[in-house]
Amino acid sequence: MKILEKIFNFKNKIVFISGCNGQIGKSLVDLYLQLGAKVYGVDNKKNKLNKKNFLFIEGDICDHDQIKKILIKIIKKEKKIDIVINNAATAIFGKFVNRTDEEIEKVFRTNVSSIINVIKNYTILFNQKKLKSGKVINIGSIYGFLSPDFNIYSKGDRLSSEIYGASKSSVIQLTKYFAVLLANKNINVNCISPGGILNKKLQSKKFIKNYIKRVPKNRMGKVDDLHSAIIYLSSDFSDYTTGQNIIVDGGLSLS
């Protein structure tokens, strides 16, 4: 029972989640609230969620001054931040031959620069306030280390882009870099790389069918499939795990 309490006890934990309005972000907010944590969600669009122990802050995670002020505000009130989830991301689906500098900048600014921005400001405050420990989890993607199978896409489907994959590859590398750099401060940095997450509003029936054919588990992922890895990496039970990229893809990357 003590082991289970160590894994699932998030009471008095303070959690920061970027991109809290997205499909994965909303799921993670609900997860941590169910586990008894207090959650601060940040997004650039207003959130109407009204739940006990959830506080929404509208802001741009790419803006250094905004994030600095947001993190200072949270730590001033709570005296700490135990868990940082770098979940915010954006994607571009246009054809590679039409790629613009503005699209490249947008993807890298949101998916890469924001993580550096958050971790940098978190580390500065961690040192100033002499905090004891922290867990950072970055959300990557299987396309950070695997090329898409272009045969599964049909006309009208959202084609995973070269720049999205390049940005998520950077997320995995940043995870390893910061894991080593911050290990002596007792800050664990890990990554979760999801496979395709089912979203019938954005995915065609043909795409879903073609994608599933590639997956040994014979289905697309659900946001709930990420929860076990999230719980482990953010719990006290994972204190000796850092710099890892946990792949949650139903075995797709193995086939």
How does this model look, in words?
The protein has a seven-stranded parallel β-sheet, sandwiched between helices. Helix 4 packs parallel to helix 5. Strand 4 (83-86), helix 4 (101-128) and strand 5 (134-139) form a beta-alpha-beta unit. The model has no long low-confidence stretch (mean pLDDT 95). The protein has a single domain (2-254), classed as Rossmann fold (3-Layer(aba) Sandwich), CATH 3.40.50.720. It has 255 residues and is an alpha/beta fold. The chain has seven helices and seven strands; from the N terminus they run αβαββαβαβαβααβ. The N and C termini lie far apart (37 Å). The relative contact order is 0.14. It has helices at residues 2-8, 23-34, 64-78, 101-128, 162-182, 205-213, 227-234, and strands at residues 14-18, 38-43, 54-58, 83-86, 134-139, 187-194, 245-248.
Q: Which characteristics define this entry?
A:
single chain, 255 residues, alpha/beta, Rossmann fold, seven-stranded parallel β-sheet, 15% strand, globular
Secondary-structure map:
Blueprint (H helix, E strand, L loop, with lengths): L1 H7 L5 E5 L4 H12 L3 E6 L10 E5 L5 H15 L4 E4 L14 H28 L5 E6 L22 H21 L4 E8 L10 H9 L13 H8 L10 E4 L7
Parallel strand pairs: 1-2, 1-4, 2-3, 4-5, 5-6, 6-7
The dominant shape is globular
Helix content: 25-40%
Number of domains: 1
Spell out the helices and strands N to C.
Answer: HEHEEHEHEHEHHE
Task: Describe the structure concisely.
The protein is an alpha/beta fold.
